[in-house]
Amino acid sequence: MPDIHTEFHRFLSRQEKEHLLGQRGIVIWLCGLSGSGKSTIANAVERVLHQQGRMTTILDGDNLRSGLNSNLGFSTEDRLENIRRFSEVAKIFVSQGIITFVSAITPQGELRDLARGILGENLFEVYVKASFETCEQRDVKGLYAKAARGEIKNFTGRDSSFEPPQTPDLILDTEKTTIEDAAFELLEAIRHQISGI
Predict the structure, then answer these.
(1) Which end of the chain lies in a sparser environment, N or C, as judged by fewer CB atoms within 10 Å?
(2) Looking at residue 181, what is its pLDDT?
(3) CA 143 to chain CA mean position, Å
(4) Which pLDDT band, with edges at 50, 70 and 90, does 138 fall under?
């Protein structure tokens, strides 16, 4: 590795950025099967926070795979690298005091452990819960139909496993609640963490 000389010590501090924004940075990591409602909930909550004058951003799995992570597949190694990059980008945003949503399947415990290792106490883990069968019925993007025809390899829940988080900070069961109610529940859960500068 070449000589690296970090410049963090000369940058404005996170506290200065948070004071300017009047909020605390946090990473709200939504994991769950494709079609469980992760991105929909993130979008709904972001809109409310925006109306409240909060600075937010969303890192979405599909969006990052079309750019930053376009060179990654779905092997074990590529999934690890995908989540590592997500986490490092989220770490930059949260260091600027930005409320950051991550919407990524994050199917295995080791992937979520990797994210937590990078983000530490900045991470608020949300399990967006819905069964494979329910997500298959929704099939918003047509991915489940493609997987059934063998057009998608290593499809989570079918060819590769999804391990539900053991101790998430919040569980949103989208089989039992509306998107609006799930968004309200998430807003209530993070309310104290993003305010109080």
Answers:
(1) N
(2) 96
(3) 20
(4) confident
Closest to 159 in 3D by CA, of 147, 174, 143, 167: 147
Top pLDDT among 91 and 151 is at 91
Residue 30 DSSP code: E
Q: Where are the domains of the chain?
A: 26-190
In terms of CATH architecture, what is 26-190?
Answer: 3-Layer(aba) Sandwich (3.40)
For residue 120, give both structure tokens: 């530490």
The H or E element that residue 44 is part of is helix 38-51
**What whole-number distance in Å separates Cα of residue 90 and Cα of residue 88?**
5
pLDDT in tens, 24-37: 999 999 999 989 99
Q: What is the pLDDT of residues 32-72, one digit of tens each?
A: 998 999 999 999 999 999 999 999 999 998 888 888 888 99
Measure the CA–CA gap between 144 and 139, rounded to whole angstroms: 6
Q: What span, in angstroms and rounded, lies between the C-alpha atoms of 197 and 192?
A: 10
What is the number of helices (H) and of strands (E) in the chain?
8, 5
Q: What is the pLDDT of residue 141?
A: 79
Amino acid letter, residue 37: G
Mode of pairing for the β-strands spanning 170-173 and 123-129? parallel
Provide the strand spans (E) within the chain: 26-31, 56-60, 99-103, 123-129, 170-173
Other beta carbons within 10 Å of 71: 8
